[in-house]
Amino acid sequence: MPLRRSTALVKWLFENQHKFQIGRACSSSLRYKEQEEAEPAAAPAKPRPDLTPDLSFRFEDLQVKLAAPYQLQPKPEAQDLGFGKFFTDHMLKVHYHQHLGGWQKPEIIPLENLSIHPAAKALHYAIQLFEGMKAYRGIDDKIRLFRPDLNMERMNLSAQRSGLPQFDGAELIKCIARLVQIDQEWVPHSESSTMYIRPTFIGMEPTFGVMAPDSALLFVILSPVSVYYKSDDDSGVSMYADPSVVRAFPGGAGNRKVGSNYGPTIEVTAKAAKLGYHQVLWLFGPDHELTEVGAMNIFMVYVNEQGEKTLATPPLNGLILPGVTRRSVLELASQWEDITVAEEVITMDRVIQLNKSGRLLEMFGAGTAVGISPIGKIGFMEKEIHIPTTKQQQPVFQRVKDTLLAIQYGHVEHPFATVIS
């Protein structure tokens, strides 16, 4: 070939190299290539049989890898527990990858740190949600969950609002039950302590687009815990009500258990602590409507105009988390003939008026983490309102608390409790 033509060809190849698909070859890829040429053509690829339907993962696909002896952690003493300071030896993980067909097989593995891309949507846009459940060791040494179906229902609603895929709650309950069985020795042998269960769901796709992620991770970790609030006396917990801040607003996500509802409360909670209060009583609107108290639903016991003892809580109007404990208190108390149960708007003016007239008997918070917590004092508009919750002869809060604990620890058989071992 003449030199001029050869030079022109090299120049053309150089200028048009971007149009060619060039692949790198290595010894392993060449070996596979030779193997493919020696074998007959394979049939068209079929869907992977080990993938579960996009709708949900399945308990029957659960894979378990137990921790090695050197990975096991020493169990803390009951008096050292606190809340969420210690974690058990194993965790549950379920990946979701849209390009792999959706939900993957659930797995129980030794507790480990997560590997997450710095651009993951959970880190930038709060595409993250969680649940709070507990496992109770009963007087018969059996371990029980308390109404886990309601947690699953709420978790799926939070997932829907966050653009995360939904799942079959019954399948997750079975996976969680297996996780608790594996780490059952971490469930305290005490009725003053429990095992807190934290299912968490996060968006993992590493892109900056504000849209539903195509990959996600659902995981569950366990933590033995004791009481959430420690009051210095028996007068109950104290609350700080600041009308200038709100926890949620109409049309928002205050009724979903998403992390973005909790982080922004830290500053106000810290302010309340500096002023000597345990938590914040969240108000809304010009009438200062009571919504939640800390991370709890709030209840009030008062004597109504007909002289009846009434147990009231704010209605689920989109500003309030539909608590499992809240619902259980309402359902249980509605069966008591000596108490009228009501879901009604409660304002600070109403609280003050009832208190001045001597008709306000009790206020208490209710939640999975805190249980039933009597409220003894509210700081509002530079005044302190003292609530005689713990001074009642037969307080409703104590009756509610005892009823729930009897169910949770197996003193009575009840459909609210699910025995798992």
Automatic annotation (TrEMBL):
The keyword Transferase applies. The keyword Cytoplasm does not apply. GO terms for cellular component: mitochondrion. It catalyses: L-leucine + 2-oxoglutarate = 4-methyl-2-oxopentanoate + L-glutamate; L-isoleucine + 2-oxoglutarate = (S)-3-methyl-2-oxopentanoate + L-glutamate; L-valine + 2-oxoglutarate = 3-methyl-2-oxobutanoate + L-glutamate. GO terms for molecular function: branched-chain-amino-acid transaminase activity. InterPro entries: Aminotrans_IV, Aminotrans_IV_CS, Aminotransferase-like, B_amino_transII, BCAT-like_C, BCAT-like_N, BCAT_family. The modification N6-(pyridoxal phosphate)lysine is found at K257. It comes from the Eukaryota. GO terms for biological process: L-leucine biosynthetic process; L-valine biosynthetic process. SUPFAM superfamilies: D-aminoacid aminotransferase-like PLP-dependent enzymes. It is an enzyme of class 2 (transferase). Its cofactor is pyridoxal 5'-phosphate. Keywords: Amino-acid biosynthesis, Aminotransferase, Branched-chain amino acid biosynthesis, Pyridoxal phosphate, Transferase. Its EC number is 2.6.1.42. Belongs to the class-IV pyridoxal-phosphate-dependent aminotransferase family. PANTHER family: BRANCHED-CHAIN-AMINO-ACID AMINOTRANSFERASE, SUBGROUP IIII AMINOTRANSFERASE. This is Branched-chain-amino-acid aminotransferase. The lineage of its organism: Eukaryota, Metazoa, Ecdysozoa, Arthropoda, Hexapoda.
